[in-house]
C-alpha cells in the first residue's frame, strides 16, 4: 500500500485554502466575462484581464496575510 496521502487527506489538510482559491478564480472569471460582455472589448484585452487575475490573486492574498500580521501585533 502506498504511504502517500490521498485526495481526501489533501482536502482535509488544505480544504479551506483550496475553497478560497476556487472562489477567487470563479469570481474573477465571472467578473471579467460580465465586464467584457457589457463593453464588448477586444479579445486581446479579455485575455490580458484573465492573465492579470494571477497577479490579482497573489496581491489579494498577500494583502490578507499582511492585514492578519498587523492585527496580531496590535
UniProtKB/TrEMBL annotation:
Organism, scientific name: Halogeometricum pallidum JCM 14848
Top-level taxon: Archaea
Record-given protein name: DUF8119 domain-containing protein
Residue stretches making up the DUF8119 domain: 7-70
One Pfam family per UniProt: DUF8119
InterPro entries registered for this protein in UniProt: DUF8119
Record keywords: Membrane, Transmembrane, Transmembrane helix
Membrane spanning stretches: 19-38, 44-64
Amino acid at each position: 500500500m502506498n504511504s502517500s496521502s490521498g485526495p481526501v487527506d489533501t482536502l482535509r489538510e488544505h480544504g479551506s485554502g483550496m475553497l478560497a482559491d476556487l472562489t477567487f478564480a470563479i469570481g474573477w472569471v465571472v467578473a471579467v466575462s460580465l465586464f467584457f460582455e457589457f463593453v464588448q472589448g477586444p479579445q486581446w484585452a479579455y485575455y490580458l484581464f484573465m492573465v492579470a487575475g494571477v497577479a490579482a490573486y497573489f496581491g489579494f492574498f498577500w494583502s490578507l496575510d499582511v492585514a492578519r500580521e498587523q492585527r496580531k501585533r496590535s
